[in-house]
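User: Hey, quick favor. My workstation is busy. Could you predict this chain's structure for me?
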Amino acid sequence: MFPEILQLGPFHLRSFGVMLALAFLVGTWIALGEARRRGIDESKLMNLVLVILVFSILGARGMYVGTHLAEFGGRPLDAIALWEGGLTLYGGFALGTIAGFAYMRKAGLPLGVTADVLTPSVALGVGIARIGCFLNGCCFGLPGNAPWCVRFPAGSPPAAVFGDVPIQPSQLYNALAAFLLFGLVLWLRPKLKAPGQLWWAFLALFMLVRIPIDATRYYEPSAYVLNSPFGPVTDSNVIGAGIFVISVAMFLLSGRAARRTASSVA
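Assistant: No problem, here it is.
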């Protein structure tokens, strides 16, 4: 774990913040290239990226704070300390998606095509951000015996929970999955012609790999909502399964709509 890169007096350069900034910059660069390729107005896309960024961070932080209120008892200002980590993916996804689609409609951007333009950026950005989680020590895994398991230093969140034992790098599992999906998205890009299908395919595949990876991650007892024949189920698993089902349905509907449009034109 390497949460702090540099300290100069009161200034702290946090690795989590640096990786978030890197994810944003690289993702924006890729999205602008995709916009040029697909004929999307670059200035509107840049505004969209900023809208999604702001509301994703607000949603991710808001959901984290809302589910960890005891952590901020007597320290309400710590709720805005984003550089220390503490973001919930689904909160950011929900608010960022709502705000993004609202802006697309207002700006007259085609919803499906614009979502496809952003898909590679989202995949790569998630991978980079998860490396930030690893460096920060948040979103950590359960104890394990694999050769690649990591001993986090005293004072880190994993050590506070489990002590000096090897921990599965669940954050890096998520990062690797996102990087592999980024490559898969680039491969699928010319094959999926229907607007929106690339986005829904990525989302379904991401949920499909995230659910088993979640089995390696530590969750507080309050996050477990039921037991199943496959083991305990967290609220994150339930949300992920719901997003998977919706994504598969939307993928199929997008393809059907595109075929309908093509046949009517013909």
